[in-house]
Queue: 4 jobs
Job 1
Amino acid sequence: MPPTDIPTSLPPMKDLTTENLTDNVHLVNSQCTDPRLRYLLERIVTHLHTFCLETRLSTEEWNTGIQFLTQIGQISDDLRHEMILLSDTLGVSSLVDAINHPRQPPATEGTVLGPFHTHDAEDMDHGAVLHSDPDATRLLVLCTIKDSAGNPVPDVKVDVWEGDSKGFYDVQNPGRTGPDGRGVLRSDKKGEFFFQAIVPVPYPIPMDGPVGRMLKALGRHPNRPGHVHFMLDKEGFDLLITALYPRGDPYETSDPVFGVKESLVVDLSTVEDEEMATKYGVKLGTKLLTYDFVLLSDQEARELRKKNAIEAMQKQGRKVVFHNDLPIPAENS
């Protein structure tokens, strides 16, 4: 079928060379009316073309890259998120989280969501046992949630998940019939919540797909330090996705997804008081993890993002304007 809408506002693009191709792509994309999208495409095309020119990228290498990304899509489904795993292992997930959910003391730092979060976790009461794993070492998790002024934050949706004592998440079980090792709680009027988990163990990220082959080619190990995931969500507060890592894990300083931060490394203790054991429904000697989460309000996070964006643009020698709360250089607006 012949074209029905031939553009007349652009100069002809002929005699394209390695010297002028990038500018011509920018010229075509400049017709986009969304200033943020126009800016994003300008930068990604610039960096991608520069990468090709700097490395003198071969056709074989480019086709390998295309095949790699195609295979990532093919292996992914509702329970396996290979693209998230790629983003994690390249450090992009940590970088994007740090940009979009900036933290300053006393706020709790965030970390990667990871590829194993699901949306089918069941609502649970305080004290609930996450795991059916009979071989696990039990762990009482006892936490508080406060705002930056130190006030308790009640009714926060607390989504928690972790692997089992063998280092596998429930979604890696081919016989999975429902959620295990995960649940959703709500903080009480004192901003407190507690549940029974297991002492997390290190585990390898999936190595049977394209990302695993990439890590092998790079000579990288796949082992994540043991951790418990938390997602804290309440209207009026900036979403916190984070994890807590028991100290002393052999992979604490070489996490393949770049998720460990010193403020999130915790020391485990034990429940040694009879009154405490009775109160929380656990046995004496149960391992204990305590932590005080601090949330930023939406407004605090928004102001911090804007401040950081302005400073980043200034370092580039650019003035910045904002479109839908997202930065673009003034010359691109």
Job 2
Amino acid sequence: MVEYAVYAVPGAQYAGITLARPSGDIETPATTHRYPALLDDIQQRHRQGPCFVAAWHQHTVRIDDLKNDKRWPNYRRDALAATSIESILSFRLFASEQTMGALNLYSDKPYAFDEAAEEIGYVLATHAALAWDTVRREDHFLSALASRDIIGQAKGILMARFDIDAVQAFELLKRLSQERNIKLADVAHQLTNLRSFSDL
């Protein structure tokens, strides 16, 4: 997606994905160059910048001339010192309680992005957000499926060991989960890895 964004958006030379969390932690999981990750590090240091704002507060942020943009002075100073970037275009990708995301495009030239670039970037960001959501849902589904399987195995072990039915085995797992204050799937995983019940 980031490689295609550089190809498709007029004026874009580099692109990256920013993930931002409420704690202020920022991650750059995909990039076409070292600059996007470097600029994300600067944003994390100062808790300010266009990608951060696009992810948390606005859908689109555009900087036409970083040298003369006054919105984030600490970010601007360090970004200009560390890179040759002068134009930035950031789009929100998705929002959740835990993580926000932004697609960011960069250029070494001032006024690199126009309205057409903004429109194309917005369409790409929308597609990227849909793809990201699909991947996250699939990951959650596979995780839930794996948890269900491990819980089923643990129930079978308990049923065989204590001569109880499936409902009783599940209730026993729930009780262990509550007593130890850990997730049911984690209790089940521990149980399936035991060499003897005295280890439980």
Job 3
Amino acid sequence: MFEEALDAPISITENATRKVRSLIEEEENPNLKLRVFVTGGGCSGFSYGFTFDEAVAEDDTIVERDGVTMVVDPLSFQYLSGATVDYKEGLQGSQFSVNNPNASTTCGCGSSFSI
């Protein structure tokens, strides 16, 4: 499923787009895409994961913004619908984060949640 960034059921911020583009340039592989996923575990039940991937499955949701592609598998998508992926730098370090309206609770580190 292809989605434009402005109409997407999951979105990526300008900060995250800029960071992804920078990391892809460092790797010198323009075929890389940011894969966002959800796994079981973490202090709140589920955890967010981020990786780079060249492959896109037929049933992945694809979101493009400013030349950057983000992909989400169907299982993770059900937990991430309506979410926004961001990149933050602060006192606790730099990291990708997810603002997820589906999460009923999140942990202090911001990388795990429960529904």
Job 4
Amino acid sequence: MTKNKIEKVEHKCTLHDVLEIVGGKWSIPIIFTLFDGTKRFSELEREIPNINTRMLVKELKKLQQTNIITRDALPTVPPTVNYTLTHKGQMLEPILRAFLKWGEEFIDK
């Protein structure tokens, strides 16, 4: 395989991996909501239209496993759980804002 072909294959693998992390229907809205700072579970549920509880739980677990967010469970009654972007998650902000700008400019409404 030539060097150019090897680089293309590596780029495709990297892009595939990125999309596995942030390519889900709900991942980006969750991340976008957390750009404003730490949120409780109920705040996320309220601020993300049309997401159901089961899907929010699933996506939060996935984002936590990929080190995009942290989950902080406080020992209160009832339990309080806060979600915050990690440094890795914060680094997505300029990229996702650029996607938003592109969409606003080029997607017909």
